[in-house]
């Protein structure tokens, strides 16, 4: 997943963008970038690394201007080379820069059309560069020297007609403003808000509400699926629905793992959803094993903490912090390679023996994806002296690839793919493995929430791809392109950025 942000303010936005990206860091750890706009110029700084490593004082000083956009990257297309760090830039029309969260599923077709019909060249393997060029082409086709909000919305309607997949996008047009839009299913999240200052109202658009909270912005609302929000150069906000048949079907995995618990996505609190996941999973445990012999519930930090706490409460069993997390190690699942992920689990988590010795422990994680974490954790629990090790996953089994912005392209790398729950339990070395049911996961997000959801993007759990047009040939192709082995074999030396001047 990536994190995106755009701010239209009344004074320099560089520090605010930096701060927002830091708050969104959990959505991507590979690369970070900011583009600001002052007068008729864009200023760019982007590179591989965490926000705190990419931006030095000298870069911050050069990022001038009262409007800007930022991105933190977790790649789902192309490579992790810094040439594919975002935001991307095109000089025509107007000068446009764009940051994208999600993944396009018809990139090959669009690329061909861009080249043959629109006479545009794409210089990376990033789907986001493709998206930017579609937007630029559609704006160009309107032949307006000064685009009005309606022209911008018209171009976005065309983007929806040409692009398939999941996308939340923030773009900036030199001298004209910032626009944010969300795909017609609202797969990827996006929210916007305002802040009053003496100089006037400032606006911010971001992936998650937590970024707005942290910067003192008041959330106005989520951007609706297919809708676009435009803040013009005078600071006026305009909005329009640009995809007539839109439906609200957000990615349920945001609630399971990606988003921060203190975010509210599409009106549903991620924290409350995770508490409910714990409750519902406890009910399943009680119905399957009413006379269970669990002595203690232990979360696998970080993300599962909220669910595990409520699961223990509901079971009436002690909750203990049996694993301590090294706060300086990032999230392992979003790391690019399996060797790195495996090594990081050991560096990240350490067991407190006394919580395990002679006890029947129930370990709780939010999800099991490749099985990297749970296999090692179960071993650690046994080494620490646990009698029996049970394992509970607050999400159902992840059995199918994701094509909408989560880098899970390879079915064979998913531990649950083609296996029964019992087989997975044996493989990870658990004495009992229990998964959440999909209906209960959805109930956790919707119960007590006023939003009318049309459904959820649950493909990793049920193999149904809501945008259609995902066939086996496509899945085979992304498996070939994006497996860990393919990524490792890819030459990563192509770091030359053909782009705006990018400060070293
Ligand atoms: O089965 P796996 O392939 O190991 O993936 C699942 C694990 O990865 C994630 O943790 P991560 O370390 O990324 O982040 P967290 O600290 O937020 O839990 C997730 O919370 C699970 O613990
Ligand atoms: N995780 C994401 O949202 C990735 C965005 C885009 N597809 C990229 O690879 O850069
Ligand atoms: Mg985890």
UniProtKB/TrEMBL annotation:
Pathway: Purine metabolism; IMP biosynthesis via de novo pathway; N(1)-(5-phospho-D-ribosyl)glycinamide from 5-phospho-alpha-D-ribose 1-diphosphate: step 1/2. The keyword NADP does not apply. The active site is at 2 (nucleophile). Binds 1 Mg(2+) ion per subunit. It is an enzyme of class 2 (transferase). Mg(2+) binds at residues 303, 365-366. It catalyses: 5-phospho-beta-D-ribosylamine + L-glutamate + diphosphate = 5-phospho-alpha-D-ribose 1-diphosphate + L-glutamine + H2O. GO terms for molecular function: amidophosphoribosyltransferase activity; magnesium ion binding. InterPro entries: GATase_2_dom, Ntn_hydrolases_N, PRTase-like, PRTase_dom, PurF, PurF_N. Its cofactor is Mg(2+). PROSITE patterns: GATASE_TYPE_2. It comes from the Bacteria. One of its GO terms (biological process) is 'de novo' IMP biosynthetic process. Residues 2-234 form the Glutamine amidotransferase type-2 domain. Catalyzes the formation of phosphoribosylamine from phosphoribosylpyrophosphate (PRPP) and glutamine. This is Amidophosphoribosyltransferase. The lineage of its organism: Bacteria, Pseudomonadati, Pseudomonadota, Gammaproteobacteria, Oceanospirillales.
């Amino acid at each position: 997943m990536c994190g995106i942000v755009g701010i239209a303010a009344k004074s320099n936005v560089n520090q605010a963008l930096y701060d927002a990206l830091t708050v969104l860091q959990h959505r991507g750890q590979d690369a970070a970038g900011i583009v600001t706009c002052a007068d008729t110029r864009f200023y760019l700084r982007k590179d591989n690394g965490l926000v705190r490593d990419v931006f030095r004082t000298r870069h911050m000083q050069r990022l001038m201007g009262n409007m800007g956009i930022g991105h933190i990257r977790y790649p789902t297309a192309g490579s992790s080379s810094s040439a594919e760090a975002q935001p991307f830039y095109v000089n025509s029309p107007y000068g446009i820069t764009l940051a994208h969260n999600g993944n396009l599923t018809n990139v090959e077709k669009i690329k061909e059309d861009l080249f043959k019909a629109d006479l545009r060249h794409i210089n990376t393997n990033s789907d986001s560069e493709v998206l930017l060029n579609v937007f630029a082409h559609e704006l160009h086709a309107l032949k307006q020297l000064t685009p009005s909000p309606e022209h911008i919305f018209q171009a976005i309607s065309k983007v929806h007609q040409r692009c398939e997949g999941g996308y939340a996008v923030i773009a900036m047009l030199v001298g004209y403003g910032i626009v944010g839009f969300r795909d017609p299913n609202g797969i990827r999240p996006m929210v916007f808000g305002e802040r009053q200052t003496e100089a006037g109202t400032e606006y911010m658009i971001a992936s998650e509400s937590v970024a707005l909270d942290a910067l003192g912005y008041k959330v106005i609302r989520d951007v609706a699926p297919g809708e676009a929000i435009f803040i013009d150069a005078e600071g006026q906000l305009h909005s329009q629905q640009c995809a007539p048949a839109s439906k609200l079907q957000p990615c349920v995995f945001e609630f399971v793992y990606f988003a921060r618990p203190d975010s509210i996505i599409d009106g549903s609190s991620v924290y409350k959803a995770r508490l409910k996941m714990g409750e519902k999973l406890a009910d399943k445990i009680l119905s399957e094993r009413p006379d269970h012999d669990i002595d203690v519930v232990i979360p696998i930090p970080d993300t599962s903490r909220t669910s595990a706490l409520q699961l223990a409460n509901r079971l009436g069993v002690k909750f203990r912090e049996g694993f301590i997390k090294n706060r300086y190690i990032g999230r392992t699942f979003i790391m690019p390679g399996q060797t790195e992920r495996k090594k990081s689990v050991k560096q990240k988590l350490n067991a407190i023996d006394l919580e395990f010795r002679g006890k029947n422990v129930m370990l709780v994680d939010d999800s099991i994806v490749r099985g990297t974490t749970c296999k090692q954790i179960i071993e650690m629990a046994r080494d620490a002296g646990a009698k029996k090790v049970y394992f509970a996953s607050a999400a159902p089994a992840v059995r199918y690839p994701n094509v909408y912005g989560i880098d899970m392209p390879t079915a064979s790398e998913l531990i649950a793919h083609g296996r029964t729950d019992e087989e997975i339990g044996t493989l990870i070395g658990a004495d009992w493995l229990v998964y959440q049911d999909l209906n209960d996961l959805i109930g956790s997000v919707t119960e007590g929430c006023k939003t009318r959801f049309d459904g959820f993007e649950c493909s990793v759990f049920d193999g149904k791809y809501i945008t259609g047009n995902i066939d086996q040939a496509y899945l085979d192709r992304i498996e070939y392109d994006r497996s860990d082995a393919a990524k490792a074999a890819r030459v990563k030396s192509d770091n030359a950025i053909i782009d705006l001047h990018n400060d070293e």
